[in-house]
Design brief:
Blueprint (H helix, E strand, L loop, with lengths): L2 H9 L3 H14 L27 E5 L2 E5 L9 H11 L6 H14 L3 H5 L3 H8 L18 H10 L27 H13 L2 H5 L8 H18 L4 H10 L1 H13 L1 H5 L4 H15 L5 H22 L5 H43 L1
Antiparallel strand pairs: 1-2
Helix pairs in contact: 1-4, 2-7, 3-4, 7-8, 8-11, 10-12, 11-12, 15-16
Length: about 350
């Protein structure tokens, strides 16, 4: 056994790798044993001693395409020849095809991602290898990210710590992270597919702090209440199979968007983040610098309206009232809220120390 074959054979022992292969097959052929005999267009090859090497012309996605693709992963002949040579494969058997697929995943630099439980990163790297993967540039029918991840999960694929399964991308954990419950990981693909707005809320490159986990759980709770689902599995089945239920969930999440979006966030989160930053270095107090930059504009506006000609008394009153009630009240509310909030935390800490 050569080193390349030894590497892919070892990788095939990973449940993540086997689930990822199943995910590829979901778009390229099927999950049945016949997939290993399938040629482009659906005809089955009888002889598995070698790639059939037949060019077949078929209409796919409204386009006439000529292809030598064959096998569960639809290897073009030239691609298969490369794999067979690198791995010293004796035939076109299912075992040889699985090994070749892993070889191609590794050639795309995606095998470490698959092994580590980062399927979205791996999909992005392999989208030019298999035309049915999300993000493939070849103009052929593709699976959505939600569909791909659902198959990955169905066949036992796992996710690395701090990684959420979702159609837009992977969300990586930072310092203040907490893992999503297993039920949420399993449910998210269906929920995101039904409510695309949620993808933006937990979108590409975002962190997964505790407040985001809480917001995801809040969205799931709203969705369950909207259709009377008792379990997460019941909710997932309804989202995938019942368009009316999916629509009801979308409407409910829209109606409760403020509640979901603000869980663990809003001005409280801003105050806490700013206070933590200011504690380590007062010069990095973002709120102070923003306030300092804005106040001169407020003074100039008030001066121009009150002391220059051409403004009626009504306009002057409205402008001053708007500034005072809007911008200034927001800033003073922030600073007073920060001070009072800090004082209350100190009081609570003192009370705990007293009672311990």
């Amino acid at each position: 056994m050569n080193n390349a074959l030894r590497k892919v054979s070892g990788a095939l022992e990973s449940p993540n790798v086997r689930a990822f292969l199943r995910m590829i097959r979901a778009g390229e052929t099927s999950q049945t044993d016949d997939a290993y005999r399938m040629m482009f267009g659906g005809e089955l090859v009888a002889d598995m001693t070698d790639h059939p090497r037949r060019a077949i012309r078929k209409s796919l996605g409204g386009k006439l395409i000529t292809s030598t693709a064959a096998g569960a992963y639809q290897f073009l002949y030239r691609t298969w020849a490369e794999c067979a040579s690198a791995l010293a494969l004796p035939d076109f058997s299912p075992a040889s095809q699985d090994a070749s697929a892993v070889y191609l995943i590794d050639r795309r630099g995606a095998l470490p991602d698959v092994l580590a439980g980062k399927p979205v990163d791996a999909i992005r790297k392999c989208a030019r290898e298999w035309a049915s993967l999300p993000g493939s540039p070849y103009g052929q029918p593709v699976k959505t990210m939600a569909q791909a991840l659902a198959v990955y999960a169905e066949y036992g694929g796992a996710y690395s710590a701090g990684t959420i399964a979702q159609p837009g991308a992977q969300i990586h954990a930072e310092k203040t992270t907490m893992p999503l419950p297993a039920f949420a990981l399993a449910l998210l693909p269906a929920l995101f597919d039904a409510v695309p707005k949620l993808v933006k809320r937990f979108g590409d490159g975002s962190s997964v702090p505790e407040r985001n986990v809480a917001a995801i759980e809040a969205a799931i709770a709203v969705a369950k209440d909207a259709i009377g689902a008792k379990t997460e599995q019941e909710l997932a089945d309804a989202l995938r199979n019942e368009p009316v239920s999916a629509q009801a969930v979308r409407i409910a999440i829209e109606e409760n968007w403020g509640q979901i979006n603000d869980v663990g966030g809003g001005i409280e989160a801003a105050r806490e983040a700013n206070a933590a930053q200011a504690t380590t270095d007062p010069r990095r107090n973002l709120a102070l610098w923003v306030t300092t930059a804005i106040l001169p504009l407020v003074y100039l506006t008030v001066y121009a309206v009150l002391f220059r000609e051409g403004w009626s008394s009504e306009v002057r009153a409205m402008v001053v009232a708007a500034i005072v009630s809007g911008l200034l009240s927001s800033m003073t509310g922030y600073w007073l809220g920060t001070s009072f909030s800090s004082a209350k935390k100190d009081d609570r800490a003192h009370e705990r120390a007293t009672h311990e």
